[in-house]
Amino acid sequence: MFFYLFSSLIILSALGVVFSQNPVRSVLWLIFAFINSSGLFILLDAEFVAMINIIVYVGAIAVLFLFVVMMIDVNSSKQSLLKRKYDLLIGALMCIGMTFNIYVIIGYGFGDADVIKRAVLPQKLFEGLTNTAMIGQVLYDHFLIPFQVMGVMLLVAILGAVSLTLRQPQLNKKPKKALVKDSIKLVDIQPGSSVSDITYD
């Protein structure tokens, strides 16, 4: 019962994200979808993943999206109707492509029982462990090298973002030569002289 409830709310939230014309409301629908997906993780006895989903995605990423949308002041009413039709067409094509990929993965990948047996770890390895301990044991015992490589990749991304942010603009130290026609010269005119008597260097 709760599975169908959370699944229905996730579908409704996803439709609200896509079809809402207000960007702020789209982000709020996205947050609601993340919360309901955490409910599905709780039903799977994955409380740690559910809490991480709320803390990371809802508490950090979705709130960041909300702040960015509010700061840039996106006005969807300025978009033309033709552009919206193209956006809906592109979104529909992407949904069809993703559905086809999921069908291929489920049909040809998980249809083989040997693939599932090789992917699933023995249950006896996790007897007497909590959910958090099981995730830690899998990450640091069986996937240590990919986990460390992923951390190095995130570190490189952070360093690249910091270097781009702190890069100072290169100023041209050589002053531009002023053109003669754009320059102004102050001349001290003597009493009794005319404009024709002024000499220029």
Automatic annotation (TrEMBL):
GO terms for molecular function: NADH dehydrogenase (ubiquinone) activity; quinone binding. The keyword Electron transport does not apply. Pfam families: Oxidored_q3 (PF00499). One of its GO terms (cellular component) is plasma membrane. The keyword NAD applies. Its main location: membrane. This is NADH-quinone oxidoreductase subunit J. The lineage of its organism: Bacteria, Pseudomonadati, Pseudomonadota, Alphaproteobacteria, Rickettsiales.
